[in-house]
Amino acid sequence: MSRRTLAALVVAVLAGAGFIACSEDAPDPPVAPGAIHHMTPDAAALVLDPFTFRATLDPYKIHQLPDFMMHSKATADIVIQRSVFLPGPGFWHIHPGPSFIIVLEGRIKIERFSRKVGCTVSQIYEPDPDNAPDKTNGYFEVANEVHRAVVVSDEPAVLLVARFNIPVGGAFTIPVDDPGC
Fold this sequence. Notes:
Elements (H helix, E strand, L loop, with lengths): L2 H19 L29 E7 L2 E5 L3 E5 L3 E10 L2 E2 L3 E2 L4 E7 L2 E7 L3 E4 L16 E4 L4 E6 L5 E10 L7 E2 L6
Antiparallel strand pairs: 1-4, 2-3, 4-12, 5-11, 6-13, 7-10, 7-12, 8-9, 8-11
């Protein structure tokens, strides 16, 4: 699969997921490229159902200078998901490839464990409809990092996830033993 096809696939799936949540009324004037797109208050009810899409990609190399590079030397899967997590801690696990996550609903933190650093806890991630500089709604996970999600809101957390470099047909979430954090 070419770089252009890869980019088109990722954009199409993520745009399609966002389209479901957007108002049917077109903004007046239309949203300019790079502008903030606000969703209607009733959009949350439209994005709660989980889904998973998976596709196999040929090796690729993406170099967008000056500051972005991503490549895979092997044929691997890409997985796009909308995941729903109930309040409280999830199970400890790893992913065989990197993941990029956007928080659509709820509030979530990530507990991580490494032999070098021990147990750590991230900031709380939550949606930010106003794009305030002191809040965030996205984060990433590195491959093979032991971690778990902890939903700290009273309502479920809804995440949009892109997972890269997953073994073809293989597991993309692998449970591990509790590290004692």
